[in-house]
Each structure stands twice: as C-alpha cells, then as structure tokens.
Amino acid sequence: MVRENEIRENEVQITPPEPTDAGLTFIGRISTPWTSRMETPRQGRHDGPLCRIEIYEPWVPALKGVENFERLEILYWLHQSRRDLVLQSPASNGKIHGTFSLRSPVRPNPIGTSIVKLEGVDGHVLLVRGLDCLDGTPLIDLKPDRTLFKPIAPPQPGDFQTDENLPCA
Ligand code: SAM
C-alpha cells in the first residue's frame, strides 16, 4: 500500500537527530505524469512514460557526454517523505521490516535512485523513461549507469587490492 504520511500498525517512529548540513544542492527538477503518491509506480520501467529532467544553471555544461550513454543513474530527493521510521509495514498488515532492508521512500535521507533509459537530450533537458517519482521532485545528481561506464582516469593501487593482500581493519 502506498502511504501519504500516516503511521501503520507496528511501525516504529523515532525522533531523528538534528540534521547535519551536507551542503546538498538541487541541480534540477524532474517532470513526470504523477501528482499523487497513490498513482506513482513503485519502481520505474523502461517502457514507462516519457519524463523530463530539467538541469538548472550553472550545471548545464556538465551534461556534455551524457548522450553517449544509453542508460543513466538518476538520484533524486523524495521531498514529500517522512524521515523518522526505523521499522515499516509496506503491506500495511502489521508485518514489519527495517527501513534499510527496503527501497521505501521513507528513510532518514529520502534519496531515490533509478536507472533510466535515455531517449534524448534537448539542451538543458533530458528525456528519459524509467522514473517513479512525483512531478516536481528535486534532482540531486545523475551519472552513467555503472555497467556501461569504464573509468577514464588511470587505475589507482586500490583497484588491484584484494582482501588477501589488504584485509579491512
Ligand atoms: N526507485 C527509487 C528507489 O528504489 O530508490 C524510489 C522507489 S520508491 C518505492 C517510489 C515511491 O516513492 C513511489 O511509488 C511514490 O509512492 C514515492 N514517491 C515518489 N516521489 C516522491 C516524492 N517526491 N516524495 C515522496 N514520495 C515519493
């Protein structure tokens, strides 16, 4: 069941610590067909509706090269989410799950991620399929799908280190 902001049977709410200012900047805005959480897909699909990602200045030049990737990873801020549940009942049936074992939008820092199919780039606007967020959701970041990306910078020593030659402390 999709929630607005209600708490369900057996869910556990905490009082979150004071926020730390991470200096987060919204770099754009996502336009989708969905204005209600009750209608928004739980996960986007690559044959889903075309959505627009508008990039704000001064970040537009940072789009150079994105057109070379068939798929992008999009990070967005699920701005209407509550942030104070540690145990949740996604099915509203009293069965609970830890927040970090879910992809629920309700989390301490409500970051959503989707791998989208890039359909086009029109100046400062990306046209994509595969999103699952409300119209007007703020954009945090975008980057190539990691399965398509080969590092451009030369390798570093850590790239060759295995657990055998450098176990974690
Ligand atoms: N794909 C992302 C992920 O896995 O990180 C998000 C998945 S989350 C389950 C998607 C749901 O978040 C939607 O079905 C909707 O109920 C909710 N949602 C979407 N946009 C939101 C927003 N801007 N604020 C709060 N909730 C939102």
From TrEMBL:
Q: Which GO terms describe its molecular function?
A: methyltransferase activity
- Region annotated Disordered, chain positions: 1-25
What SUPFAM superfamilies does UniProt report for this protein, alphabetically?
Answer: YaeB-like (SSF118196)
TM annotation in the entry: none
Q: Which PANTHER family match?
A: TRNA (ADENINE(37)-N6)-METHYLTRANSFERASE
Q: Which NCBIfam families match?
A: tRNA_TsaA (TIGR00104)
**Protein family (similarity comment):** Belongs to the tRNA methyltransferase O family.
Recorded protein name is tRNA (N6-threonylcarbamoyladenosine(37)-N6)-methyltransferase TrmO
* Protein's gene: tsaA
